[in-house]
Write a structure and sequence with these properties.
The complex is a heterodimer. Chain A is of the alpha/beta class. In chain A, about 35% of the residues lie in helices and about 25% in strands. Chain A has a single domain, classed as 3-Layer(aba) Sandwich (Rossmann fold). Chain B is an alpha+beta fold. Chain B has 3 domains: about 160 residues, no CATH class; about 100 residues, no CATH class; about 180 residues, no CATH class. The relative contact order of chain B is 0.17. Classes of the chains: A alpha/beta, B alpha+beta. The complex binds adenosine-5'-diphosphate and magnesium ion.
Chain lengths: ~230, ~550
């Protein structure tokens, strides 16, 4: 199995006033291509922090080990490469959906594609992109909601839009932070089914959860304790 | 590609941008309206400062310039000069009789101009300043039905041009503000107390051609006062220069009459030592008539200072020629003793303060600009604050800093453009109607408006009560404020007798300048846009620096 994403003894310390709060103290994780890994741990153990480092949303400490994506070191990324990494190489799903309230469901799903395209390419690829976003939303069970605003959707529906958004640019890995954390068991189960479908179709996934039942859906679980992965 | 989409969405799907557009529009309109009125005012001051003085004025007060006819010929032969006209200037007492008896006597101190109407018309368009003349057709159509000027009986331009009655008695033309009983209305428009067709009432001068008594005191070359001269005149017309100070102080009479009353006319010159057979002093020549002032008009395209220099040259030549001519026994004053100035120089004490005032206004308005920029900045700051999470999302899906910056710059640009356009339109609407608005404020509110205000108050009270019944705090607050405001408006309307803001006796002009200063409009518009973008750029830069993780961590 090919290694896709790897954190090697990463450290992350937050400063709270004058006090240094070490959250990750040398955590290591490897994610192979096509794998579905669940990161578990108690609340506040640093699961989200690790996921943010993997997704290039945050930078590790200066004395930290590297985070690698397909052999490239994230720490060495310049601003452009970092933006492209966030835009094309990974897809992010958050616990609180984080959709843009002014945009419709379809526009929210297309957002990363819009961000990645120049005006010229947008003009030439617009209709193909719309079609793809609509199809993606359909596979997420939202074909009847394309023109709605996020405020008009239920929590489960919003999370489906967020998943469609994370997948629009065909990322090589999906990073999900408590994707069911804000949903009831039934709705959350639907979301997990959707993720399982994508995994079956070949998508690599890293999922953070504190819920053992949710983590059980993944192929493999890693546990963060005391800032390290056990 | 997301920047335009988001900028447009942010603009159309919330209320804050409309407040921002309104703020920009109001600032822009405010600046344009005030500067336009101010510039218009200054223009009117300058234009009317020229009224009746031409471009260059030659003066030698009291004793005047002898052989002024020769000087005028000399000046009119200049290529720079179009025409010149002689004037005798002095002060006098004007006694106006209203009704019969001493109780109706009104004595005013006035500035007296003896003029030659025909040449003054060539220099300063005198005929167009006459008030009782036939107005242009368009102006006539716009007049109120009871306006005396609609009545051909009062079109007396011929009398004004003759400065005499039809049967040849010498006439006076008064500044339109001189007679205290021919008054301006609250709207600033001049009306006599007479309606056309009403029985003629001799109590009022115009348009009834009343009689007045003018007293002048001649001053000799030695500086001693002669006995006062009193004479009856018939008021044949009134003039309106547009400049209140002139209209309220100046009267015009025929030049020969003024010369005669002031002993500035041609007279036999007698010897002190030789006597003729009858024992009377022997006539040895003639002293020439004099004028204290010569007003000169420049040819089109000639600047006043150029004409002034040419006139100075002409005067020097005139002085030399007369002084050397033995047949002319009286010498004109030395060139140094004669003031030869452009109209602007002559009015500098008057124009100067207004120009200073405009500078002050400009300075004050640069503060308004800063206030506008601060306002836009505050509004954008709150917009960006509210959008931090969205920005975090955009950054998390790979939007660049410049991309995020561009969203808000573009947003500021759109608000600036929309606000500036609305502001210019608003300013234009206000300026075009400013005199109507002023008149509206100047008259008591009509009954229907008062009733409407009370009805509106009652309606809002009803909505407030409904809000209370439906337990809607927002409705209670909004309509409650509305009710209070409408109640205040209603009470004010009830007691409003109209007030005059633009007092013609203070501002010199009867109308508020009502033309939009387009130069100011364009620069203010550009300023509004630039300041909106500047106001947006600071919060936009802050937005671009947003850390995606921090802004997304908590709901
Ligand atoms: N920006 C921050 N500043 C200071 N402390 C932080 C910050 N972000 C997270 N933390 C702290 O880091 C720890 C780990 O947080 P997180 O990774 O969100 O935990 P988890 O996702 O496992 O619940 C928590 O104690 C949290 O309070
Ligand atoms: Mg977490």
């Amino acid at each position: 199995m090919n290694m896709l994403l790897e954190a090697d003894h990463v450290k992350k310390t937050y400063r709270l006033g004058r006090v240094d709060v070490p959250v990750l103290r040398g955590a290591s994780i490897t994610v192979g291509e096509g794998e579905w890994v669940a990161i578990v741990g108690s609340s506040g153990s640093g699961k989200s922090t690790l996921l943010h480092l993997l997704g290039g949303l945050d930078r590790a400490d200066a004395d930290s080990g590297p985070v690698r994506f397909g052999g490239e070191e994230l720490n060495r990324f310049g601003a452009r490469r970092e933006n492209r990494y966030r835009n094309r190489d990974v897809g992010f799903v958050f616990q609180f959906y984080h959709l843009l309230p002014e945009l419709t469901v379809l526009e929210n799903a297309m957002l990363p594609a819009l961000v990645g395209l120049s005006r010229l390419r947008w003009i030439s690829e617009r209709s193909a992109l719309r079609k793809r976003a609509a199809e993606l939303l359909e596979t997420c069970g939202l074909s009847h909601r394309l023109g709605h605003r996020p405020a008009e959707l239920s929590g489960g529906e919003r999370q489906r839009v967020a998943i469609a958004r994370a997948l629009i640019n065909r990322p090589r890995v999906l990073l999900a932070d408590e994707p069911t954390g804000n949903l009831d068991i039934h709705t959350g189960g639907g979301i997990l089914d959707l993720l399982a479908e994508r995994h079956a179709a070949g998508l690599t996934m890293v999922m953070v959860t504190h819920d053992a039942a949710v983590a059980a859906r993944a192929q493999r679980q890693v546990r963060i304790v005391d800032g390290r992965v056990q | 590609m997301y920047a335009p989409l988001l900028a447009n969405r942010y603009l159309t799907s919330r209320i804050i941008p409309f407040i921002a557009v309104a703020a920009v529009a109001l600032c822009v309109a405010l600046v344009i309206v005030v500067v336009s009125v101010m510039s218009g005012f200054l223009e009117m001051v300058r234009a009317s400062g020229k009224t009746m003085t031409g471009d260059v004025v030659v003066t030698r007060p009291i004793t005047g310039i002898p052989y002024y006819q020769d000087l005028i010929k000399e000046i009119e032969s200049l290529p720079e000069a179009a025409a010149a006209s002689p004037i005798v200037e002095t002060f006098g007492l004007l006694q106006m009789q209203y009704g019969t008896g001493d109780g109706g006597k009104q004595i005013e101190m006035v500035e007296v101009w003896g003029i030659d109407p025909a040449s003054l018309d060539r220099v300063a368009d005198y005929s167009r300043k006459l008030y009782w003349s036939r107005p242009a057709d368009a102006a006539l159509a716009a007049m109120a039905p009871d306006d005396p000027l609609r009545n051909p009986f009062y079109h007396r331009e011929a009398d004004g041009m003759r400065l005499a009655t039809a049967d040849g008695r010498p006439g006076l033309v008064l500044g339109i503000e001189i007679s205290p009983f021919n008054r301006r209305g609250r709207d600033g428009a001049y009306r006599t107390s007479q309606a056309p067709g009403a029985p003629q009432d001799a109590d009022y001068f115009m348009p009834n051609a009343g009689k007045v008594i003018l007293t002048l005191v001649p001053v000799s070359e030695g500086g001693s006062l002669g006995g006062e001269r009193k004479r009856d005149f018939t008021v044949v017309n009134e003039f309106q220069s547009g400049l209140f100070q002139i209209d309220a102080n100046r009267i015009l009479l025929p030049l020969p009459v003024a010369q005669e009353m002031l002993r500035l006319d041609a007279a036999p010159m007698v010897s002190r030592t030789e006597f003729d057979e009858d024992g009377r002093p022997k006539v040895i020549g003639e002293t020439p008539g004099r004028a204290t002032t010569i007003v000169v008009r420049a040819r089109p395209g000639v600047a006043a200072p150029a004409l002034r220099d040419a006139v100075r040259g002409a005067y020097a030549r005139f002085h030399e020629r007369i002084s050397l001519d033995r047949s002319m026994p009286v010498n004109p004053p030395f060139p140094d003793l004669v003031s030869i100035e452009t109209w602007e120089e002559r009015l500098s004490d008057f124009i100067g303060p207004v120009e200073k005032e405009r500078e002050l206004m400009r300075t004050l308005f640069s503060i308004v600009y800063i206030v506008c920029a601060g306002l836009v900045l505050a509004i954008f700051w709150s917009i960006v604050q509210e959008k931090t999470r969205d920005i975090g999302i955009l950054r998390a899906v790979g939007a660049s800093r410049t991309g995020v910056l561009w969203i808000f710059l573009r947003y500021g640009l759109l608000i600036g453009i929309a606000g500036s356009i609305v502001g210019v339109l608003l300013a234009w609407a206000i300026i075009a109607r400013i005199n109507d608005i002023h008149n509206l404020l100047g008259t008591a509110a009509p009954a229907w408006l008062r009733i409407l205000a009370w009805v509106a108050t009652a309606a809002m009270l009803g909505l407030t009560v409904r809000g209370t019944l439906r337990a809607s705090a927002l409705h209670v607050v909004l309509w409650g404020f509305g009710t209070a405001a409408m109640a205040v408006v209603s009470v004010v309307l009830l007691h409003h007798e109209g007030f005059l803001i633009w007092d013609p006796s203070v501002y010199y002009f009867s109308r508020i300048p009502d033309s939009l200063d387009w130069h100011t409009a364009w620069t203010t518009m550009a300023g509004g846009i630039v300041f909106s973008v500047i106001g947006a750029s600071v919060p936009a830069a802050r937005a671009a620096d947003t850390d995606p993780v921090k802004s997304l961590r908590y709901e």
